[in-house]
Amino acid sequence: MNITIVDYNSGNISSVINSFKEVGKNKYDIKISSESKIIKNSDKIVLPGQGSFKSCVEGLKKIDGLTESLNQFVLDQKKPLLGICVGMQMFADIGFEETKTKGLGWIPGKVSKIDNQKGEYKLPHIGWNEIKINNSGKIFKDIRDMSHMYFVHSYEFIPEDKSVVSSTTNYSTNIVSSVEKNNIFGTQFHPEKSDKTGLQIIENFINL
Amino acid sequence: MLKNRIIPCLDVKNGRVVKGINFVDLKDAGDPVEQAKIYSDGGADEICFLDITASNENRDTIFDVVKDTSKKCFVPLTVGGGVRSVEDINKLLNCGADKVSINTAAVQNAEVVVESSKKFGSQCIVVAIDAKKNDKMWEVFTHGGRNKTGIDAIEFANKMEASGAGELLVTSMDRDGTQVGYDIDLMSKISSKVNIPVIASGGVGNLDHLVDGIKLGNASAVLAASIFHYGKYSIKEAKEYLDSKGIPVRI
């Protein structure tokens, strides 16, 4: 199996690479690339994302043909893609970090700042928090409900269709901590930094 | 519910741990990778390396340590010490650090914080504040506590939040190494003045000090070194104790 981690200069992806290599051992071919040809020939894609929604979207666009090949992979070829953190947020139509920015539009919805209830909750939401799993989540096979995952973010993805939400996390409100829509998977938390449970989720994605 | 974090910190010099974990079953008492792995297996919520390498020739040793650790530990890794520029931060992140802590450089030039948080995201920029109490204020010190600056730590904390820091690691120099507990006043004052998480550091001697740091100091996370190094307490014991005191932790 070919797994490609998309490198589009959106911050540090070495932890994502390390975790996939740890889980995949030498069984899978794990590439780091942004080339259309490699993406097209991959079986699975991982879309990481750090920094702001705006800078990540801009990072994708800067690479010629990248957005098109991702669209093709997800919408035409319908192969599995996992977005992590801002990588997931970019599934939305629109984001409001820094300025209003158009997302990939794969899952209708918006990305806006977490309501910190006038400073009652610290932002960024940093640290380990529990995920309440909806029974539909394929990447949560063998994952206990209310498992702890590592989060670092100030913005949340709000999909229009709530049926795509595969888990939520309580911080100020019930934040969407993961989504699943057909072949599109996303986590707001960082499975690559969530210890053994996180590695299990990565393995589940690989085994889909 | 968001859990309070326990962060063990290891001092690394020339690529080796100084004051490491004093366990009999350790193959190599000075290997930072092995020790970080023991902490992460024991339930540490994050690992912190403080590079105290004095000479420039040996600076690169920390990069190898970070590279090797990030291949074996799958919890967040923060690295601090000797971070001077955006390029230094970039290098550490590329080696596998998840966060970089900036101290002296942030005081000398806040632009480093502004620029790096824009470039890499606030989530990976931790500003470390070393403060010492005098008659008027808690004063910020730089260069590993050697140089005084005349800067008020609370004002500085506000400035760093505005500059884009994602977290503040606050160390009381009066308490550091004393094992009498965190400077609760300092922690709670800073925590109430900023909206970003505060990590309390300096002075932990027993598990009640961790409880106080969170309950009274309002810290989001507690960092400690020596109580874990010499096997006085394990991470697991610390977490169970906090849990018994009603503090939410990941167990």
Structure in words:
The complex is a heterodimer of chains A (208) and B (251). Chain A is of the alpha/beta class and 208 residues long. Chain A has one domain: Class I glutamine amidotransferase (GATase) domain (Rossmann fold). Chain A is 25% helix and 33% strand. Chain A contains six helices and 13 strands. Chain A has helices at residues 14-24, 36-40, 53-62, 66-76, 86-89, 195-206; strands spanning 2-6, 29-33, 44-47, 81-84, 94-95, 101-102, 109-113, 125-133, 147-153, 155-159, 165-171, 173-181, 184-187. A nine-stranded mixed beta sheet of chain A has the order 2-1-3-4-13-12-11-8-9. In chain A, strands 6-5-7-10 form a four-stranded mixed beta sheet, covered by helices on one side. The mean pLDDT of chain A is 95. Chain B has 251 residues and is of the alpha/beta class. In chain B, 35% of the residues lie in helices and 24% in strands. Chain B contains ten helices and eleven strands. Chain B has helices at residues 32-41, 61-70, 86-95, 104-108, 111-120, 153-163, 184-193, 207-215, 226-229, 235-244, and strands spanning 5-13, 16-18, 47-51, 77-80, 99-102, 125-133, 138-142, 147-152, 167-172, 198-201, 221-224. In chain B, strands 1-3-4-5-6-9-10-11 form an eight-stranded parallel barrel, surrounded by eight helices. In chain B, strand 9, helix 7 and strand 10 form a beta-alpha-beta unit. In chain B, helix 1 (32-41) runs parallel beside helix 2 and helix 6 (153-163) packs parallel to helix 7 (184-193). The longest helix of chain B has 11 residues, at 153-163. The interface between A and B is large, with 38 and 33 residues.
What are its keywords?
heterodimer, A: 208 residues, alpha/beta, Rossmann fold, 4-stranded mixed sheet, 13 strands, 25% helix, 33% strand, B: alpha/beta, 8-stranded parallel barrel, globular
